Structure to design on (226 residues):
């Protein structure tokens, strides 16, 4: 399999459509020894600002001396933009090797494009021994393939109407899907939200015994020019 073949295989998986759920990624990850349990992580959901938040956090962790994986989507030019370590994109030959491995192991699982790419990222991060991984959800949160991780912190950026056909018609329903990344006892950092969305986040956090830290209320930041 060459690089073009690997990309064709990955995009060919779009025939399976979008499947919201954790069963397939968990099955695939188990075949690789559950690599998502091998590194510390930060999980980011939201409608606006996910990508920039992920990039900034990865940069800060890198400058603090850590080896940092970054998983984002979609890409702008090249597929390899989706999976990075310390700002270096995954090599094309590594995409090929991982695609071949996953294709061989997947068998009758019939994973979707995003499920395979998520597993690819987690396997890659484990094999490269990253200290931290910054993980952006693909869509929603609760049933997103990335929601198999138990992060050190969950981040919810600004929520607005998106993917209503999958996440719900109301802002409360959409916020409920995004807040699904909140795990038991894991602190939550959130942007200011519309009251209905914030109410959903706070309720979920209370159920999970997780403390909420709201930007501009509980903490703030200044941009310093050098």
């Amino acid at each position: 399999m060459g690089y073009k073949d690997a990309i064709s295989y990955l995009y060919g998986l779009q025939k399976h459509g979008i499947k919201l759920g954790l069963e397939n990624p968990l099955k695939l990850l188990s075949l690789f020894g559950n690599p998502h349990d091998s590194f510390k992580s930060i999980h980011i959901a939201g409608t606006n600002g996910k990508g920039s938040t992920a990039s900034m956090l990865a940069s800060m962790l890198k400058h603090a001396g850590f080896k940092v994986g970054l998983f984002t989507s979609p890409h702008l030019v090249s597929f390899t933009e989706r999976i990075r370590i310390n700002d270096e994109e995954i090599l094309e030959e590594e995409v090929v090797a991982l695609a071949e491995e996953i294709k061989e192991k997947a068998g009758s699982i019939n994973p979707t494009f995003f499920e395979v790419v998520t597993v690819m990222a987690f396997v890659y991060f484990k094999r490269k021994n990253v200290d931290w991984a910054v993980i952006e959800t693909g869509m929603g949160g609760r049933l997103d393939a990335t929601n198999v991780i138990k992060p050190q912190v969950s981040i919810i950026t600004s929520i607005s109407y998106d993917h209503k056909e999958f996440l719900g018609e109301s802002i409360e329903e959409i916020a409920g899907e995004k807040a699904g990344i909140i795990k038991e006892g894991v602190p939550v950092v959130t942007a200011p939200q519309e009251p209905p969305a914030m109410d959903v986040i706070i309720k979920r956090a209370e159920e999970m015994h997780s403390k909420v830290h709201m930007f501009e209320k509980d903490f703030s930041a200044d941009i310093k020019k050098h």
Observations:
- The chain has a mean pLDDT of 92.
- The chain is about 40% helix and 15% strand.
- The helical segments are 3-12, 23-31, 50-63, 92-106, 113-127, 164-167, 171-178, 195-207.
- The two ends are 47 Å apart (CA to CA).
